[in-house]
Amino acid sequence: MLRQLGRLISCKDASRAISQMQDGSVPLPLYLRIRLHLLWCEACKRFEQQMRFLHQAMRRYRQ
Ligand SMILES: [Zn+2]
User: How remote is the CA of residue 38 from the centroid of ligand 1, in Å?
Assistant: First the structure.
C-alpha cells in the first residue's frame, strides 16, 4: 500500500522536488509523497542525502 503511493511519483519528479525541498519551497502533499518514495527508492534516497549534504556545506560556506 505505501509502496504504491510512493510509486505515484516518478524518480524524475522526485529528484526535482528533492532539490526544491532544500529551499523549503515544496507543498506539504508533495513533500509527503517524496518521503514515501524515499522509503522504497534507494537511488532517490542517496540523491536526497547528497543534496542535503551539499546544501549544508553550502550554507556553512556562506556564513
Ligand atoms: Zn526514485
Answer: 7
